[in-house]
Amino acid sequence: MEILQAARCLDKLGNPTRLEVFRLLVKAGKAGLAVGDLQEHLNVPASTLSHHISHLVNAGLVHQEREGRVLRCRPDFELMQSLIDFMTEECCEGLGPAQESRDAS
Amino acid sequence: MEILQAARCLDKLGNPTRLEVFRLLVKAGKAGLAVGDLQEHLNVPASTLSHHISHLVNAGLVHQEREGRVLRCRPDFELMQSLIDFMTEECCEGLGPAQESRDAS
DNA sequence: TAAATATTTCGATGGTTCTAGAAATATAGT
DNA sequence: ACTATATTTCTAGAACCATCGAAATATTTA
Q1: For chain B, where are the E strands, in sequence order?
Q2: Taking CA atoms, which of A37, B3, B30, B50 is between 20 and 30 Å from A46?
Q3: SS3 of B33, please?
């Protein structure tokens, strides 16, 4: 994953409401949740929620599919894993006990 | 880690300049980098850079220590690991092959 | 076609963030 | 004390984001 895409995803997940939305979707598993289900969990008006979901969709973190009257939202697990991999590899090296900045003699 | 703290960290890392700052610090290892070192890598004015660094410091992702005339910045590896753990546990379950949403019969 | 349900789009408002130049502060060396 | 270096704080404007009510759109059922 490129750094700009990572920053974009992190930015979207950096809003408490959106992070909670994403978390609820993940907890719901592959079946995901309808927008209305999310609304019941999150004390926000429909228009505000819709706005936040569209951010997540734009970033590719969530996909939507219409099922009759309801819109089902599913998280993109692969993208999330890519993001976590990026953070681990690019932003968290140096944690291991053997890691030291080699002295530049 | 609580969800609000996670959101705050993600929000701070969600800016491309700040993400790059943090990444550079991680790559530099435990020794970290001085603000001036960062400035040479990142094409931004000092005041803008300082502003971004203070966001990272406020979130606890970076610590600063004065060394003579320069301010040395070090990433908080533990906090970053906590954030990655949060994302993995709270926002990425469901990836394993055996994971399915159990039918609520 | 009308009514009900689910969700989005529109529009306005207030707040926050980004950016960057100028001035201020801190430290070290002369 | 003065100068140079390193970095922050101040200030202001532009851009962006969150919020939410109202109106619009999509779908199902009567």
Answers
A1: 33-34, 62-67, 70-75
A2: B3
A3: strand
The domain total for chain B is 1
Q: How far apart are CA A42 and CA A22, in angstroms?
A: 12
What the block records as the tokens of B58 is 């406020």
Identify the domain containing residue A67 by its residue range. Answer: 3-90
Identify whether A52 is part of a domain: yes
SS (H, E, C) A34-95: EHHHHHHHCCCCHHHHHHHHHHHHHCCCEEEEEECCEEEEEECHHHHHHHHHHHHHHHCCCC
pLDDT for B87: 96
Strand duo B33-34 + B62-67: pairing: unpaired
- Rounded-to-integer distance, Cα A49 and Cα A42, Å: 8
pLDDT band for position B28 (cuts 50, 70, 90): very high
Q: Is residue B30 part of a domain?
A: yes
Interface of A with B in 17-56 (CB under 8 A): 19-20, 22-23, 26-31
In a domain, A105, yes or no: no
**A97, pLDDT greater than 60:** no
Distance from CA of A69 to the nearest CA of B (A): 22
CA neighbours closer than 13 Å in the CB half-sphere of residue B6: 23
- The residue type found at B81 is Q
